[in-house]
């Protein structure tokens, strides 16, 4: 956009306009599309300017591990969409969670986490944060009393995904934010499945929002990246400090890819939601299926809550076969021809995976069972293909049962 002071101007703009225009000022080359700055370092006009940059007395680029114009544009654009003061982009979604933990926790601190989180996050908490003296207690996502009971004097963070993956359970963000703040804790929400197109946790009281930009923000399975969003103090201070020092850095090229993804985010999310709703309704009537997990269905336990805090119900669903064996689940997967057999999600291409042996394969069996992830569960990240083609492809697999 034109001009030097864009903050007041951007405050008046709608979501789609911000997704296309926010955070970028053209260079002297007057390019229409955002530039990529594939440089590791920057040149100063004098030794004094170099010293001023490194000391923080003068703003500007220093080193692309923590200051890059393309990455900064992505950060500012995503922050505008989430309503955040600050965004720090990272090399992956897991790097975003790790940077948040390193920035906001210390030895002796405690996390209360939803049991229904990504398997790698469980491994991060249990295998790595525990080595540094940070312990984690797990609770059912939707049980507010369990959250409260698990909070200790040393609890620092309440962590959750909503909707959860793969059972798409819904947590009440406002209630959990209130609970966290009553106990001087921070509420950290992974907003990967909704993106700011469908849900804005900061507006409901969350302190920090996490994204895997790899998923819906990119939207076409091209790059790996993540982001942490929140206040200038928390994210701009503590989390940014971790990135600057330890370097889990987003590449300029990936930042540019994610900028292109943001331009169509709202359109794509609406289409993902429409397809997912139709597929969930079709699966709900299928004789081989025992249960469909999708908050858009009226009998989903979180249907009313999702309708109140999300603008639509998302593009992810899962379902349980009546025959809950791993062999039958794999049989369905292996007989599809169109769906991509991959654990990624958020792509324009529909994907199918068996969570118990992929995304949550490193989680102990007992913990998987507590989280409701059975051997008969399959997850579909519904893409943008013609819905009848998605249904027909699943029917190939289901018909073998």
How do the helices and strands line up, and which of them pair or pack?
Layout: H1 7-10, H2 15-21, H3 47-55, H4 69-82, E1 86-90, H5 93-104, E2 110-114, H6 119-128, E3 135-139, H7 144-150, E4 155-161, H8 173-182, E5 186-190, H9 195-198, E6 208-212, E7 226-230, H10 234-246, H11 252-263, H12 265-284, E8 289-293, H13 303-309, E9 316-321, H14 326-334, E10 340-341, E11 351-353, H15 365-370, E12 377-381, H16 387-398
Parallel strand pairs: 2-3, 2-4, 4-5, 5-6, 10-11
Antiparallel strand pairs: 1-7, 6-7, 8-9, 9-12, 11-12
Task: Give a verbal description of the structure.
The protein is of the alpha/beta class. The protein has two domains: 7-263, Aspartate Aminotransferase, domain 2; 265-398, Aspartate Aminotransferase, domain 1 (Alpha-Beta Complex). It is built from 16 helices and twelve strands. Strand 4 (155-161), helix 8 (173-182) and strand 5 (186-190) form a beta-alpha-beta unit.
């Amino acid at each position: 956009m034109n001009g030097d002071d864009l903050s007041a101007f951007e405050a008046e703009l709608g979501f789609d306009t911000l997704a296309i225009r926010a955070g970028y000022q053209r260079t002297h080359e007057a390019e229409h599309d955002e530039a990529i700055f594939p440089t590791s370092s920057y040149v100063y006009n004098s030794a004094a300017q170099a010293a001023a940059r490194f000391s923080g007395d003068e703003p500007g680029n220093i080193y692309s591990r923590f200051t890059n114009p393309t990455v900064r544009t992505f950060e500012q654009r995503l922050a505008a969409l989430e309503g955040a003061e600050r965004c720090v982009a990272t090399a992956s979604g897991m790097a975003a969670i790790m940077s948040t933990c390193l920035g906001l926790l210390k030895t002796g601190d405690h996390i209360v986490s939803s049991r229904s989180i990504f398997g790698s996050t469980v491994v991060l908490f249990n295998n790595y944060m525990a080595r540094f003296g940070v312990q984690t207690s797990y609770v059912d996502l939707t049980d507010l009393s369990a959250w409260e009971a698990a909070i200790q004097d040393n609890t620092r963070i309440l962590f959750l995904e909503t909707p959860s993956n793969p059972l798409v359970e819904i947590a009440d963000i406002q209630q959990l934010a209130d609970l966290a703040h009553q106990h001087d804790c921070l509420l950290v929400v992974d907003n990967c499945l909704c993106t700011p197109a469908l849900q804005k946790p900061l507006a409901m009281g969350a302190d920090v929002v996490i994204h895997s930009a790899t998923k819906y923000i990119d939207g076409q399975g091209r790059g790996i990246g993540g982001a942490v969003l929140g206040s200038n103090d928390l994210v701009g201070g503590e989390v940014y400090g971790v990135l600057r020092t330890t370097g889990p850095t987003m590449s300029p090229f990936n930042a540019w890819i994610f900028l292109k993804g943001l331009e169509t985010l709202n359109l794509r999310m609406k289409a993902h939601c429409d397809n997912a709703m139709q597929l969930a309704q079709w699966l709900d009537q299928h004789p081989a299926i025992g249960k469909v997990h999708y908050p858009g269905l009226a009998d989903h336990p979180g249907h009313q809550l999702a309708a109140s805090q999300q603008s639509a119900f998302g593009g992810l669903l899962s379902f349980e076969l009546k025959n809950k064996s791993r062999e039958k689940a794999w049989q369905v997967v292996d007989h599809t021809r169109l769906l991509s057999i991959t654990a990624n999600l958020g792509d324009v291409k529909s994907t199918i995976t068996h969570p118990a042996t992929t995304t949550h394969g490193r989680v102990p069996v007992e913990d998987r069972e507590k989280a409701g992830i059975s051997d008969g569960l399959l997850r579909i990240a519904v893409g943008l293909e013609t819905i009848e083609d998605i249904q027909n492809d699943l029917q190939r697999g289901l018909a073998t049962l």
